[in-house]
Each structure stands twice: as structure tokens, then as C-alpha cells.
């Protein structure tokens, strides 16, 4: 039962996170977009990453999806 909960939670995490990233890119919402820049100059190095908010939202939702899945399995 624990492995099924993990699979359901992990798949919901991945799908929700990807969906939020896609919505961010489709509607140009910066806090839901993933941007990556890398500039390597002779004198320095510059790196920038994107938003982690979709991952946080996906993690929270996957937690609740796992709890709902276990609750429905017990019924």
C-alpha cells in the first residue's frame, strides 16, 4: 500500500508541476515560468534559474492526493 501511495503522489507531483510550468509559459506568468540563463564571461560567471513555486505547489497538492488515495483505499 505504501508503494502505491508513493507512485500516486509522485505522479501527481510531476503532472501538477509540469501543468503549472506550461500554464506559466502559455500565459507569460513570470512566477510560474522556468527560465535558465548562463553567461560565462572571461572575468566572471553569471547563472540564473527559474521559479520554484510550481514545485512547491505540486508538492503540497501531491501530499493531499496521497492522503485522499489512502483514505479511499481503506473504505
TrEMBL record:
Keywords: Membrane, Transmembrane, Transmembrane helix. The chain crosses the membrane at residues 7-32, 52-70. This is DUF3955 domain-containing protein. The lineage of its organism: Bacteria, Bacillati, Bacillota, Bacilli, Bacillales.
